[in-house]
Amino acid sequence: MMNPIRLFSTTIMSCGLICAVLPAYSQTTKLRPETLEGFNEYVRMTEKSLSKRWAGQRPFLRVYDNPQDLRQVRKGKVVVEQLTSNKIVLIKGGIVHDWVGAMVIPGVHVNTVLGVLQDFNHHKEIYPEVIDSRLTKQESNAFWFYLKLKKKKILTVVLNTDHEARYYQADTNRWYCRSYSLRIAEVSDAGTPAEHELPVGEDHGFLWRLYAYWHLDEVKEGVLVECRTLSLSRDVPYGLGWLIHPIINDLPGESLKETLECTRKAVLAARSIK
C-alpha cells in the first residue's frame, strides 16, 4: 500500500499537472476534410466486415467468436472490448475510437428491447448522459432523433446532437441497427443565460462523429444484445498524450458499458409492467 503522505503528494502533483495542461487542450480546433475522410474510410471498412454478419456469412454477433466472453455474458456480465489501440493517432488530425460490448437480457423478447431502443422521447429518463431527447421524425423502421449529451471526465462537455437510426430484420428473431450522427454541436456556457453552440466542426473536438451498430438476437434465455460504437475525436496536442490519452481512451468504453447496463435495466422494467 502506498504511504498516505506519498499518495497525497502524488494526487496534488497530478492535479497540478492537469491544471497546467488542460488550457492547452481546451483550445478550439477544426475538423479537417482529411480527418473526416479518414473516419469515413474506417466506417466503410467496418461496415464491409459487419455486412457479412448481417448476411449470415459470419456469426451474427461478434461475441459468438469468443467462447470465453460468451460464457461471461451468459452469466450476466456486460463484456466491453476496445477494438483499436488508441495509443497512436489513427488518422490525420483525429482519433477513431472503436468499442464493442455485449450482454444478455434474460426472459424478454426482441420486440421489448426494440421498444426501449426506439423510445427516443424517453431516452433522457433511461441514460444518465442524455439530458434531453426527442423523436423528430419516423418513417417505418427509420428514426430521426435529437439528444443533448453531457459527458464528464475531468472536463464537462455538453453537446447538441441529431441522429438517424435504421432498423433491419435479419431473421425471425434477429435485428440490427445502424445509427449515424448527423450533427454534433458543442455547447458553450451550458446551463447559463449565455448558453450557445460553437460552430459545428470548429470546437474543442471532444466528439465529432458518433456511430452505433446494435445487434439483437433472441435466444432461449432472452435476448443477446451487442453494440459497437465508432466515434471520432481530435488528435492530442504534442507532449500531452501521456495525460490526455487515458481520458479520451477510457470515456467511450465507459459510456458504452453504462449504455448497455441502462438498456437492460429499462427493458426489464418494461417487461415487468407488461
Task: Fill in the keyword field for this structure.
6 helices, 274 residues, disordered N terminus, alpha+beta
What's the short story on this structure?
It is built from six helices and eleven strands.
Q: Write down the oligomeric state.
A: single chain
Helix and strand sequence: HEHHEEHHEEEEEEEEH
Radius of gyration: 20 Å
Number of H- or I-type helical stretches: 6
Shape: globular
N-C termini distance: 51 Å
Find the structural class using helix and strand composition: alpha+beta
- Percent of residues in helices: 25-40%
DSSP strand count: 11
Low-confidence stretches: 1-22
Proportion in β-strands: 35-45%
State the major sheet. 9 strands, antiparallel
User: What is the residue-averaged pLDDT?
Assistant: 86
Notes on the structure:
By secondary structure, the protein is of the alpha+beta class. The chain is built from six helices and eleven strands. The chain is globular and about 50 Å long. The termini are far apart.
List the helices and strands and how they pair.
Elements: H1 4-25, E1 29-30, H2 33-54, H3 67-74, E2 79-82, E3 94-106, H4 110-117, H5 123-126, E4 130-139, E5 142-153, E6 155-171, E7 174-188, E8 196-197, E9 202-203, E10 209-219, E11 222-234, H6 241-273
Antiparallel strand pairs: 1-9, 2-3, 3-11, 4-5, 5-6, 6-7, 7-8, 7-10, 10-11
Helix pairs in contact: 4-6
